[in-house]
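Worked problem 6 (solution included).
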Amino acid sequence: MVFDHINVMSGYPQPDIDMFCSFATEHRRRECPGIVQASCKRGIHRPGHPHNDDGGNQSRSVMGGEWAMFDKDMSWRQVPVRLDAKRWSTWPRSRTVLVVVHTVTTGQRLLDAVALLAGDLRVQVVFTMARDVFSNGVPEFLDTLRAVVLPWEQAVETRFDLALAAAYEGIHQLHAPVVVLPHGAGYNKFVSAGDRKRVLPERGTYGLGRQWLIRDGALVPAAIVLAHREELVRLAHSCPEATSVAAVVGDPSYDCIRASLPSRALYRAALGARPDQQLIVVSSTWGPNSLLARSSALLAQLLAELPHEGYRIALLLHPNAWNAHGEWQVVSWLSGLRRSGLALVSQHADWRGVLVAADHVVGDHGSATLYGTATGVPVMLAGTGDADTDPGSPMGELGSVAPRLDPARPLLRQLQRSLRACPRDDLARISARISSEPGQFARNMRALVYRTMKLRPLGPCAPVEPAALPVLVQGRPYESARS
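Solution. The predicted structure is:
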């Protein structure tokens, strides 16, 4: 290509600029018709060219017209998504899947779905980063995957056979059937839509309301993934027309937690809990109503009041909290508590094994607290997220029956009484509301993905894998910079 031989900043002789402009214009006309006319009207500054309005005597930045298209083409990925990509591909794929990552949390959930395509040489998977208030950390997350990542501007101008998302910002711009998954334990939280131009009568349950599913009178997702059959009833109430594309497939994290229970001793050892110690897992979501925001002194109280020889305290923090404030800052803020014995779970670790290891879960209205009910251990609540929780959701029910940890009373006694305060039958009933398809997410989701791609799956579905061993934050926040 001409692009491969152009070095604008070097001192080497440049190829004929008119030839390049003609090539770039024709390339963009084929790939993205409709934007070329406007870019051609802007023109291009060519130093010393007789058609310049300044005769080439002024020093100006060459950033308009076809040069802008040149920059855009160089930032866009060519293989494996360009129209003639088969010329350059080692594996001749027949389907291309786009994975839309809004946040680290959504990216983690989408990996559960992407894993179902492993080993299928017919399917090429590419990723893109979509806009979100919690997009910090996404570039690093994508870097660790070492996958093909398309700029968002390219993703919305390219056709795909399937797009997977776990959030809603911008997905109406995609040229693909979009399958949307929940990024946590079902649909539990009240959230107002972020688009201020859209007038809404009230807050809706995130992922089930019309403000996320309908755009300009049309239903955006091709399929809406539900974890439980009862969510169909809630969806029918909030957005009846969306029930036609709803698919009840189950919950991957619920299945993973259940599959990990036989290896509980391994997860406890990874968190530094001795066999004679009780492991208290403190789980905090993000935002002003989270456990850490409302009960900031709770961790210090637990470390001070519980005897170290009998208890170990581990903190499980939502990725949005890590990335909104920065990993260095979070580790720095918690450095004193870590010196006092707090086990800080890395945001890069598999959090599901942490819940499996717990003897008690103390949490807020975040999904990790709800998933804690799947382990059968006592669950207590702290923080004040009731106003953010749909009372008809499983998290809403947990909020009505789980005991509250009162920092003004002795904590050890409250933990010892927590099992009686919240009977196992109540926790089992709430846990059963997370998924109506226990153990079947992989099979059902795989069938949905291939059906959407109009492709027949290859071979049997792989069994549910247990969670990876958790990893704790090690060292001090300044050490990596000094080394």
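Discussion: The two ends are 43 Å apart (CA to CA).
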